[in-house]
Amino acid sequence: MMEKTCPYCRGELTQGFIDGGRGSLKWHNENMGILEKHTIFGGEKLSSNSRIKCLRCEKCNKIIIDLDGL
Q1: pTM given for the model
Q2: Can you give the residue ranges of the DUF6487 domain (predicted)?
């Protein structure tokens, strides 16, 4: 995983996970059409796992996901 210092504010990062429920993690570009954004068929699948490891900074309220670790 990454360094445990926030690159935005230099606060402490805490390792945890985001739970996506029954779905997978997908990337949606802002320029995608409405069908691509709002259906299960749209988006670029980043992970089949619904539990995504990440680092959270409580100081500046950012979450960092290492896509190489998915």
Answers
A1: 0.70
A2: 6-68
